[in-house]
Amino acid sequence: MAASAQVTWAKTAENGSEIVAIGGVRKSFFGKTEWRLSAEEAIAMIEQDEWRFFIEIDDEKEWLDISEAPDGTKAISTNGPVKTLL
Hints:
Blueprint: E1 3-12, E2 19-28, E3 31-38, H1 39-47, E4 51-57, E5 60-63, E6 66-68, E7 74-76
Parallel strand pairs: 1-4
Antiparallel strand pairs: 1-2, 2-3, 4-5, 6-7
């Protein structure tokens, strides 16, 4: 089962066309841990069911998705909840 991690910021490419990194805080029994991942690392962790990433909007979790272009290129979707971080 994937661990969940809250995303509190996202970095985009210079032209703003794609997310290149995400980061945030992961809560555990031992406290909070800050983390940072490239988009490629985050996508791999989602696909391997290691981590799930979310943002909080009005105390509700909104889960991030992966989008895939026609050429097979994968990215963290810039539609939906991640828009609030950009």
